[in-house]
């Protein structure tokens, strides 16, 4: 009887340890080794009905044996897309950094929340240091920041902070405290700006779309025009959201000129550098973000180009007045006791709208320790180098037509199959070309040979957007991509 007081009858530690040992082995073999091996499939497509059956998703009252659980782990990995695979060009993230993964494993194993020094002493100090480093790359020697659950949320924070700074009353009085506000961005910006405006009660109507040039960069003269027009219509201009590295075309808005306009009109300048922020690490390419230090806030997702793994997204602020805490704090006394035995300024939980918050700094910190700033710089430069390589190779082949010369690592192009070559002037060319990418996408996914995204954009018919982000990529992987697309499309 005394024994049972010491050991829970529901808890078998040694069986748990054995399971985890086996799971780590499966993860190493199936997710890490095979998941990054070019000779393996990038995905194993199943129709949803078949996949539901294969996964046996139903949750039952009876538990399963350890060997069954291990089989389930294998099955889950088998039918999941291998985003670290060198033939995965589909998203703005790809690739596996072992130190970043080690950081993620430690984070998951320790399972703490970032909100107080009390329960996350290491990570509170680490987050502070990582954010300081990111801010220094932006060009700020002081400021604030926080890791957010993704770039979309970072962008929403920026909107909320800009609004609170101008109208602190709105924290208590809500929308009643506000005149109609205007937010300026281009149609190339990420859709999270629209979502943020809706979510924060500003409404999507408060967004004024500023014209972009052919490459997708904001036109500052049109920004000026839009601001004047908004004012003439009785709206109060609040914020400009410029983008460094747009999602589809990879364009960089001209930040110096935009900052001039913001300064002149007293507007908050937010730079959504979720995608392009990591370019700041490169001495060669950081000029693309010239002027970023004049921003009030910056979103930056190391989980994209730096391959830290999802998710790792920083919102950086120039503010030194504790705006984050004033704007979002609720002073919960059960968590943020002011009479604690340490400096309570280290309890960062009231800077955010969440309560529990994941640790997102460790994966980046550990990777940075291992590679150094110079290793990260090489990673960014390599992506640019490979992009050039791919573009030159495309120009040498028939059937590859660039939408434009890339400025970044987004390679946007049409694959023109043999039957459509030379027919550019025929009236249904655009419509026929638009059908090519979806067919090729289906073929590549069903074969599991590679993955690349496509979209219609502006008035352009469907085109591919290949992202060069995986740090393990070599020229051979890009040659394979070109060969494979030709093979998949030879009968079209
Ligand atoms: C420019 C830009 N901003 C924001 C985001 C949103 O980031 P997240 O997916 O982390 O929410 C993306 C995502 O692709 C993006 O491209």
TrEMBL record:
Query: What are the alphabetically sorted keywords of the record?
Result: Decarboxylase, Lyase, Pyridoxal phosphate
Lineage, top-rank taxon, reads Eukaryota
Question: What is any Pfam family matched here?
Answer: Pyridoxal_deC
Using the record's annotations, give every residue carrying the modification N6-(pyridoxal phosphate)lysine: 304
Under the GO molecular function aspect, what terms does this record hold?
Answer: pyridoxal phosphate binding; sulfinoalanine decarboxylase activity
Cofactor dependency: pyridoxal 5'-phosphate
A Gene Ontology cellular-component term: cytoplasm
Q: Where is the signal peptide?
A: none
Name the PROSITE patterns for this protein.
Answer: DDC_GAD_HDC_YDC
CDD domains referenced in this protein's UniProt entry, alphabetically: DOPA_deC_like
Tell me a GO biological process for this protein.
Answer: carboxylic acid metabolic process
Q: How does it assemble?
A: Homodimer.
Q: Which family does it belong to?
A: Belongs to the group II decarboxylase family.
What name has this protein been given in UniProt? Cysteine sulfinic acid decarboxylase
Native organism is: Monodelphis domestica (Gray short-tailed opossum)
Q: Which gene encodes it?
A: CSAD
């Amino acid at each position: 009887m005394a024994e049972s007081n010491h050991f829970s009858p529901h808890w078998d530690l040694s069986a748990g340890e054995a399971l985890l040992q086996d799971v780590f082995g499966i993860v190493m073999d199936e997710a890490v080794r095979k998941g990054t091996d070019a000779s393996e499939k990038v995905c194993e497509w199943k129709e949803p009905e078949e996949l539901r059956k294969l996964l046996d998703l139903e949750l039952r009252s009876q538990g399963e044996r350890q060997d069954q659980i291990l089989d389930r782990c294998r099955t889950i990995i088998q039918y999941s897309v291998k985003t670290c695979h060198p033939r995965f060009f589909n998203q703005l993230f790809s690739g596996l950094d072992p130190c970043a993964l080690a950081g993620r494993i430690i984070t998951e194993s320790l399972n703490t929340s970032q909100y107080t020094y009390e329960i996350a002493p290491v990570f509170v100090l680490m987050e502070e240091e990582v954010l300081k480093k990111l801010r220094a790359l932006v060009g700020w020697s002081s400021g604030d920041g926080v890791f957010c659950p993704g770039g979309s949320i970072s962008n929403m924070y920026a909107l909320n902070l800009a609004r609170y700074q101008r109208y602190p009353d709105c924290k208590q009085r809500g929308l009643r405290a506000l005149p109609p506000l205007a937010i300026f961005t281009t149609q190339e910006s990420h859709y999270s700006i629209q979502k943020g405006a809706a979510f924060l009660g500003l409404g999507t109507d408060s967004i004024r779309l500023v014209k972009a040039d052919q490459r997708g960069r904001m036109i500052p003269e049109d920004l000026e025009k839009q601001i004047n027009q908004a004012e003439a219509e009785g709206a109060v201009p609040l914020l400009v959201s410029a983008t460094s590295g747009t999602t589809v075309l990879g364009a960089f808005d001209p930040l110096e000129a935009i900052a001039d306009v913001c300064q002149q009109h007293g507007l908050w300048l937010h730079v959504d550098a979720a995608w392009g922020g990591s370019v700041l690490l490169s001495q060669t390419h950081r000029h693309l973000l010239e002027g970023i230090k004049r921003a009030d806030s910056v979103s930056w997702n190391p989980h994209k180009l730096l391959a830290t793994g999802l998710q790792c997204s920083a919102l950086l602020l120039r503010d030194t007045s504790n705006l984050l805490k004033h704007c979002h704090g609720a002073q919960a006394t059960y968590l943020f006791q002011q009479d604690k035995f340490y400096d309570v300024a280290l309890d960062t939980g009231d800077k955010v709208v969440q309560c529990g918050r994941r640790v997102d700094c460790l994966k980046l910190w550990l990777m940075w320790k291992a590679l150094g700033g110079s290793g990260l710089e090489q990673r960014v430069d390599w992506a640019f180098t490979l992009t050039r390589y791919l573009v030159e190779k495309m120009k040498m082949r028939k059937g590859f037509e660039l939408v434009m010369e890339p400025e970044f690592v987004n390679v946007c192009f049409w694959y023109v199959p043999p039957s459509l070559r030379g027919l550019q002037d025929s009236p249904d060319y655009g419509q026929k070309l638009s059908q090519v990418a979806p067919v090729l996408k289906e073929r590549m996914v069903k074969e599991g040979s590679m993955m690349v995204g496509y979209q219609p954009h502006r008035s352009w018919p469907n085109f591919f957007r290949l992202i060069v982000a995986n740090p393990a990529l070599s020229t051979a992987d890009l040659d394979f991509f070109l060969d494979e697309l030709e093979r998949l499309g030879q009968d079209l």
